Amino acid sequence: MSLFSPIVPALLWLIFLLCLILICLYYRLFFFTGLCCALSLWLWQVQLHQSHAELLLQLSDPWLKGQVVSIRQQDQDFSRFLWQINEGPLRGDVLRLRWQDAPELLGQGQNLWLKLRCKAVRAPANPGSVYVEANAYVLGIIGNCVVKDALLLDASWDHRQQLYQRLLQKIGDLPSFSLITAFTIGERPFNDELWLGLQATALGHLISISGFHIGLLFGWVYGLMLLLARLHVRLLWCRRLAPFVALAAAWYYSLLAGFAIPTLRALVALALAVYLMQQHRRLSYSQSWILVCGFLLLLNPLWVMSISFWLTLYAVALIFLFVWCYPLTDRSHWGMIKHALKFQALMTLLMSAPTLLFFHGIAPLALLSNLIFVPWCSLLVIPYLLIALLLELLLPADVIWHWQLADLLLAPLHHWLLYGAAMDYWWLLPAQTVFSALCIALALQLLVFLPATIPKLRLSLLLLPFLFLLWPKAAQWQLHVIDVGQGTAVLLQKGQRGVLYDVGPVYGSFNATEAYVLPYLHYQGIRQLDYLVLSHADTDHTGAFDEVIKAYPQVKLIADFETGFLQQPCLSLPAYYLDAELWAFRSAHQLQEGNDSSCVLAIKTAGWQTLLTGDIGHNVEAELLLAQPNLRSELLVLGHHGSKSSSQLNFLSRVHPLVALNSAASNNAYGHPSAEVLGRLALLQIPLLNTAEQGAVRIEITEQHLHIWPYRQQPLPFWLQKQ
After folding, report:
1. Which of helix, strand or coil describes residue 421?
2. Which residues, including other chains, have CB under 8 Å from residue 179's CB and lie 6 or more apart?
3. Nearest 10 degrees: CA dihedral of 136, 140, 143, 146?
4. What tens digit of pLDDT does each residue of 276-297 get?
5. pLDDT (tens digit per residue) in 238-268
6. Concatenated DSSP letters for 400-413?
7. Dihedral, CA atoms, 273, 276, 277, 282, nearest 10 degrees?
8. What pLDDT shows up at residue 720?
9. How many CA atoms lie within 13 A of 400 on its CB side?
10. Which of 597, 529, 524, 521 is CA-nearest to residue 559?
11. CB contact burial 631-650 (16+ within 10 A = b; e otherwise)
């Protein structure tokens, strides 16, 4: 319910739940009492987070004291890092900071007194992209701030930063350096190729330090202590201390990982297991799972807003179900190998349902990748890397042979990731609804875990209804205004083909084309991009268009300015595209570059017309009306992001769209859309959908209707509109 509830309830709901708790206690309805307590705690945390965010925004360029709590990421313009406030009413809250010309020795653990300029956590909202706002709730981030001035209070680095800096200086040139740091201290300075490889091979869970790694270290240390206890009678004390030593090792590994949320969840579960061992209590699998869930939600109720939280609970439930249904009976080496292969195959199959729901695709290399590299990393790579980390603390600073050996051990994994990225092994499938994904997951579990006496061939018929859910639907026209912040990117789609009008902005190191546009194209299943139209040369429209050309090499580039690529002019666009009518216009009286040189594109699909106007001003709007006296359009993307110099009253009244669309960033410095344009639209009673408030806007076009889907107004998962 927490994932798919559309809004955050008001404070009145908290009072209502408290009353309900008293009623349930009176009637001894303890299950419902616990449920209401969990909801109350979650509500309280949400309200507290929002009140702290509002308090931060009320401060005008505040001076705050705090500590750097992450290793900084450096780009060409800013240093980016997380910073935790350590005094005042906002103590304990986290800020995401940008610092231009930051000190070279800035590192995790330093205490600073900073003058900040802060904004609310707000990011473009598109399906298929990272959910920054949901992540802010999970991490306790209450604002995005820019450092205006600073005073260093304590320059010392913490242990994690010191270790990372030492590794960077010693082995930063090793091919597997990024994998070494990922396995040892949880830092993943991956390039785009490695990220694609992780997606294509479904090994992301193996690379980031998670409950799997923490549990693996706990098991290795625990087993080693028991082995020592068997060697001599004087070492029997190792048996008593084994769980505590293993838990301490897991805690240290979590410390190296920066106490990332997955490691905290694993520590809670392990601490609970150690406590039950000391109390000589044994719980069933279901009791253990429910108890761990309860403790995790008690520790931080906002974790329910995290995708990884639900994936973890689902995976642990599957592990318990597998152990219960398929206990290990053959303890020979071959029997254990077959059991492990069966477990890995079933886990890969059953994890496909949440993969479809959350990531809208399947990696066909998933089974092979996990069969090879899960045991490779579990039995060899991770244990050796931890030993190498211990050697790093003991050996002289100039010794690197232990890391060179680690590089050799990681070479197969590194080459496999590069191979997966080069071959693009990732199958995009139609985005699933919550209902269809849950049905698929349930059907797969019934198929796998029902008793062997029931013919599984018959059970396979259960999957037939779900083939209908995955079967490609009839292609129809769709218009997408992608939320790229302060810029423009519009996609016209039919089936797996499309036309892209502009690609969003590039500001310094920020690349909306790569961050939002390409993931959106992949999410929508665009396999053939026929035309890429760049309206004019401004960077908030051209972005990193070369990335689009790289992803779709056969695309035809349309531009009237020099791009360095093979291109055609705006007026060369064909009159027909599939069964749509196209009409292009460009002012004959304007310079080659500039807003008024924009390529205007009219698209008529299924009897409905859409008008894309780029950044043209009132002069070109008048020229356009002279060229097309009867110009009408049901859908209009406002010129120049809603600037007052565009969308004049005469132009709007002549075109008179049913819906006006605008692409602008939230709280942008230009005031787009302007009050003047909003007044003109209100006067003509034309509704406006602005990406700053609505997120990405998808419009399904049929002969009878326009079905409009503003992304933020849907009952979204991941808490995009909860703020």
Report:
1. helix
2. 207, 410, 413, 414
3. -100
4. 888 878 888 888 888 888 888 8
5. 888 999 999 999 999 999 998 888 898 899 8
6. -HHHHHHHHHHHHH
7. -100
8. 37
9. 14
10. 597
11. bebbbbbbbbbbbbbbbbee
